[in-house]
């Protein structure tokens, strides 16, 4: 289906293709387990000699249908759903990095990911070096070591809204024989498909636009199937040498282009178990069915709100890559010509206290931790999502103390602007 159809059709139809007499709508396989006729049939599944379902911690038909839809939308060969975006990012790195390994990461990423990589993964012995994504190639290259196993960045960073130069990052990663992993949560594959620009693995917090209705926390990892693990076998023993927990099976030999996702499923999900519930996958699928309709509305509304804010004299600064004077306008036009995302950031004259007063005066836009919801919502990262970061770390991550993150929903743009106006006047 992936090659035949355009994204709009994939959003609605990919993943679940019912056969005669089967439900038209993707069913929720609310079953932990699956039945077999002989002990031998089940044993072959445990040895990865046959494909089939046996236990939902590893695979579930509802989840697999939704994963297949996301893989089709991104143009990848396979995907795996996880219980959250955090789990997706953890698995994406841990699938190829073990204690003693290192990876390089853009410093402008979501605060939760920054913490996961910079603190928690370090405790597991996986080291990270954060780099300024706008630095010249040689400077980013200098962060690589012999034990570096991946390069990581966000297409549009949350909440600083910097646009990643994906081709530059892919060049650097491939020069060092490692894959580029891109968190494509904010643009979604409707606005950007990182594989087309050289990324190897894509991750998502499906909690955001993909679900779109703020009902279900979830994540996804998508593999392009393009990275040649065997060409760098010394770096990736987990994929290119026998796995003792599967009787000496070697993932690249047994599964070819599906090696990375199969290992993530058969080994990491088996052992760590952060599976997405089939109920959540069902809700995610409903969200995906309208993703192609919602994204243009988010982007169109955000453009109008950004233009309004940039003309208002109470506003100190506006950051939205759809504004022609934005630092990332050219990159956004290159990678996301049809629109970027619905998230804007700005600061008010008078600084932090005025920004907080403004947020408290909003009536339509709600103060929530969430972002990328159908409903307009707002957050002050320095007081909320990033409060664990010191001022120094905040600035390192490009977050000003007065930064308001404004996630423009799919309501009428005039109503959103009227709400902002009354709050500015309050
Ligand atoms: C870009 C990005 N990646 C990952 C995450 C983590 O996702 P989740 O909240 O689903 O665990 C977030 C959450 O805001 C995010 O914005």
TrEMBL record:
An annotated GO cellular component: cytoplasm
InterPro entries: Cys/Met-Metab_PyrdxlP-dep_enz, OAc-hSer/O-AcSer_sulfhydrylase, PyrdxlP-dep_Trfase, PyrdxlP-dep_Trfase_major, PyrdxlP-dep_Trfase_small
Required cofactor(s): pyridoxal 5'-phosphate
Alphabetized UniProt keyword annotations: Pyridoxal phosphate, Transferase
GO molecular function: cysteine synthase activity; O-acetylhomoserine aminocarboxypropyltransferase activity; pyridoxal phosphate binding
Domain of life: Bacteria
CDD domains assigned to the protein according to its UniProt record, in alphabetical order: CGS_like
Residue positions where N6-(pyridoxal phosphate)lysine is found in the record: 208
GO biological process: cysteine biosynthetic process from serine; L-homocysteine biosynthetic process; transsulfuration
Similarity comment: family membership: Belongs to the trans-sulfuration enzymes family.
Name of the protein described by the UniProt record: O-acetylhomoserine aminocarboxypropyltransferase
């Amino acid at each position: 289906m992936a090659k035949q159809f355009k994204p709009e059709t994939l959003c609605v139809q990919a993943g679940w293709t019912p056969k005669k007499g089967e439900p038209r709508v993707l069913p929720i396989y609310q079953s932990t387990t699956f039945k077999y006729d002989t002990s031998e049939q089940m044993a072959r599944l445990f040895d990865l000699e046959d494909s089939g379902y046996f236990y939902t911690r590893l695979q579930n038909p509802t989840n697999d249908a939704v994963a297949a839809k996301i893989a089709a939308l991104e143009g990848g060969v396979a995907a795996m759903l996880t219980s959250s975006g955090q789990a997706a990012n953890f698995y994406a790195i841990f699938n190829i990095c073990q204690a003693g390994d290192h990876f390089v990461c853009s410093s402008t990423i979501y605060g939760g990911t920054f913490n996961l990589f910079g603190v928690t993964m370090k405790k597991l012995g996986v080291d990270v070096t954060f780099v300024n994504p706008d630095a010249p190639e040689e400077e980013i290259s200098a962060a690589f070591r012999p034990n570096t196993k991946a390069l990581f960045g966000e297409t549009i960073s949350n909440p600083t809204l910097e646009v990643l130069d994906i081709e530059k990052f892919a060049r650097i990663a491939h020069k060092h024989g490692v894959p580029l992993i891109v968190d494509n949560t904010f643009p979604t594959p409707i606005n950007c498909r990182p594989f087309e620009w050289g990324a190897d693995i894509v991750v998502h917090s499906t909690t955001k636009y993909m679900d779109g209705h703020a009902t279900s926390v979830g994540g996804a990892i998508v593999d392009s199937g393009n990275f040649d693990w065997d060409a760098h076998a010394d770096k990736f023993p987990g994929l290119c040498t026998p796995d003792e927990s599967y009787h000496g099976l070697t993932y690249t030999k047994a599964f070819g282009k599906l090696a990375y996702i199969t290992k993530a499923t058969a080994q990491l999900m088996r052992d760590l178990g952060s599976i997405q519930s089939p109920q959540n996958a069902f809700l995610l699928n409903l969200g995906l069915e309208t993703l192609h309709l919602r994204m243009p509305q988010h982007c169109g509304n955000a453009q109008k709100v950004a233009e309004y804010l940039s003309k208002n004299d109470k506003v100190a600064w506006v950051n939205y890559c759809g504004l022609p004077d934005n630092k990332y306008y050219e990159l956004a036009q290159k990678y996301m010509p049809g629109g970027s995302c619905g998230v804007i950031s700005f600061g008010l004259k008078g600084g932090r206290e005025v920004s907080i007063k403004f947020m408290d005066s909003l009536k339509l836009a709600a103060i929530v931790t969430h972002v990328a919801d159908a409903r307009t919502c707002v957050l002050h990262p320095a007081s909320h999502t990033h409060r664990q970061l010191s001022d120094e770390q905040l600035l390192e991550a490009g977050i000003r103390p007065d930064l308001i993150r404004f996630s423009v929903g799919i309501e009428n743009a005039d109503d959103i602007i009227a709400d902002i106006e009354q709050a500015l006047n309050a």
